[in-house]
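We examine the record.

___
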Amino acid sequence: MERGWLLIVFSAVLSVFATTFLVSMAAWQAGVKALPFEIRERLTYGPNERNELDLFLPKDDGKGLRPAVIVIHGGAWRGGDKKDMRILAEPLAQRGYVVAAINYRLAPKWSYPAQLDDCQRAVRWLRKNAKEFRVDTKRFGAAGASAGGHLALLLGTREVRDDSDPELKGISSKVQCVLSICGPTDLTDKRYAQALRDSELGKILIEFIGKPYDEAPELWKEASPICHVSPDDAPTFIIHGDQDLLVPLDQSLKFAEAMKKVGVEVQVVVIKGMGHGPTTPEQREEFMKAVGQAMEFFDKHLKR
């Protein structure tokens, strides 16, 4: 049964989430009245390859500083692009958020923690330049799907891992609110840690972490958001399908339980029948309702 699950999981699903998510968000955007915002593309936020972001700047009403959201694409840590999440970035900008849709270094050329370091650097870069973009440094969010959801959760549960750059010294990377869509939370789970090395799942995870679990269990633990849960973590909104074979629902449920135990607000919306992204009109409708709830959750915590 376990081997069958592993063979099914990564055979043809890597592009499913991106496709269905974009279709669903297109429907969302079609129903939202367009508001003016500026897009500054391909801004450099760091020295490494793929350290680029697209910045969405809502019209400045002059009433004060704006909250910001870092948006992180999925793709099994080895693919994807910032443009994949642009259609989520735009509705957030329409709601008054300064949004940075980012690229980050990819496996297998770059293994963990390169992806986390890049995401943390993007947050810190925007904080450093907060005055120019009229951003409130104390009101930052992160949103991501699949692998991007995993990285967003790390931004909400971990502080700066590498503070060696003198230009960013002392600037926090931790965010104050998170949206995770189908993001893995515990890579030490037996489904992942015991994945066959020659299976597609095993290859992806080993390429991401850099070493098999039996050679570096502490590194796999370090890369797992659930292992960093503490009372000062960011309030978190999670959307997950109960038929997700790529990232099983219990990954999100166990993470939510851990958050509740330490007193951090967390909300989980489970979409019945949905796998790793919506594929039917009914699922898309429920998914979009959940995205709307997530944006209200962000408003609650970031528009104080």
Notes: Strands lie at 37-44, 52-58, 66-72, 98-102, 135-145, 177-181, 236-241, 266-271. The radius of gyration is 18 Å. The longest strand covers residues 135-145.
